[in-house]
Each structure stands twice: as C-alpha cells, then as structure tokens.
C-alpha cells in the first residue's frame, strides 16, 4: 500500500514495477544486475483516485503520461534496486500530492495607471530609436 495522504492510498496491485539494467557507474556489476526500476500506474482506470484528482493529473500534460493514461516513472538514480524502488514510489506520491488540492482561481486585475504610462513611455523610446536608424540609412 502506497500512502499518499491520510485519506488516499494506492493498493499494491495498481502499481506495476519492472526491473531493468541501469546505465551509469557501477563497473561490471551494472551489467549483471537489474537495479533500475520502471513504475507504471494506470491513472485512467484506477479505482483509488477520486475523479477530481484524476482530472487534474491528466490535465498536467506530463511527458511521463502515455496516450493510454498510464503514468511511467523510471528510477535509476541509485546503484541499488531497493533505493530506486523507494525513489520512484516517493516521486509518484509527490506527483499525486501536488494535484490533491485544486489550484487557486486567478483574480483578474487591471493594470495601474503608472504601469500603463511606463509601457507607453517604453514604446515611445523604442520608436525614437527606430526613427533615428531610418534617418541614418536614408542619408547615405
């Protein structure tokens, strides 16, 4: 059971782990052991996720999310399989925790008079610079 929050936990059967050979440091040992971990979690078909959390997770447009709605997280940070396994599980939990609360609604504000004046002054300055350039070219 992977605990996300006091009210949300993912049962083990929903987490599919695959072990593969990792690249990187480790010498000959790295060629013989499968220390990298690939964790797959089916976001769309998970009965454990509340609908709002599922929608926010799918709306993130994360590159680790496949077209079928399966979240794939790879862990090859460490040289040992157990640490990589804990790492990918914690990263999945953090990702789900980040979408548990709905994002705050943006309150539309109007630009201040000073900011409008600064913008217009900047535009005038830029226009003057461009005008001087055109005069230089025409006189040659």
From TrEMBL:
One of its GO terms (biological process) is rescue of stalled ribosome. Residues 102-140 are annotated as: Disordered. It comes from the Bacteria. Residues 21-37 form the Prokaryotic-type class I peptide chain release factors domain. SUPFAM superfamilies: Peptidyl-tRNA hydrolase domain-like. InterPro entries: Pep_chain_release_fac_I. GO terms for molecular function: peptidyl-tRNA hydrolase activity; ribosome binding; translation release factor activity. PROSITE patterns: RF_PROK_I. This is Prokaryotic-type class I peptide chain release factors domain-containing protein. It comes from Rhodanobacter fulvus Jip2.
């Amino acid at each position: 059971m992977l605990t996300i929050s006091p009210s949300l936990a993912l049962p083990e059967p929903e987490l599919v782990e695959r072990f593969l050979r990792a690249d990187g440091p480790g010498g000959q040992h790295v060629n013989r052991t499968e220390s990298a971990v690939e964790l797959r979690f089916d976001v769309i078909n998970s009965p454990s996720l509340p609908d709002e959390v599922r929608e926010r997770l799918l709306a993130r447009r994360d590159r680790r999310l496949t077209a079928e709605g399966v979240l794939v997280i790879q862990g090859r940070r460490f040289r040992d399989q157990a640490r990589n396994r804990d790492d990918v599980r914690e990263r999945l939990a953090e990702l789900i925790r980040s979408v548990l609360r709905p994002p705050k609604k943006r309150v539309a504000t109007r630009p201040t008079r000073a900011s409008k004046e600064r913008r217009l002054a900047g535009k005038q300055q830029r226009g003057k610079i461009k005008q001087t350039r055109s005069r230089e070219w025409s006189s040659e």
